[in-house]
Amino acid sequence: MKVQVKNLDGSSAKGDIELNDAIFGVEPRADILHRVVTWQLEKRRGTARGTRERSDVARTGKRLGNQKGGGTARHGDRAAPIFIGGGKAHGARVRDFNPSLNKKIRALGLKMALSAKAKDGSLIVLNGLDVEEGKTKTLAALLAKLGFGNKALVIDGDALNISFANASGNLRGVNLLPAVGANVYDILNHDTLVLTRAAVEKLEARFNG
Fold this sequence. Notes:
By secondary structure, the chain is an alpha/beta fold. The protein contains seven helices and six strands.
């Protein structure tokens, strides 16, 4: 699959880039993408700390007073929830959100997410991300020419371009990731996917390696 490479100012760069069909030409499947996105979101959830309930509190079980005649309720356990230091009634339980998903399915999901963006025309390949003096105003004018849409995910190579990172920090809807951080959820959650030449090389090496 050949894609035209653009410069950040919207002009065409010299030479097209050939995208690997095994990565960018896979037919997307909703069930695979759903499994990977669900796995990602569940992995993000933190495990809640469980509270100590009545059976978990070490307190005396001795009767607190006479059964009758004391003028108070008939308590038989200091671990009851109504006492200070007693167990929690209906407290939080420990739930472990640590699902597993086969590596092949995860890799296939990422290929399908990349292919989905290439298929619907919302994939842009840039020659580089250099922004003059790292100015937000300059970058905003450049992005308006490119037509990034409301939300754009920009993926660079190993290291992020510092000038682009500084310029895009205050731009709403523009997010920047290194190639190693590319994931299905973020790709599908943005209107436009922007890859640099370095990002394409890293992604293809990630799957071929």
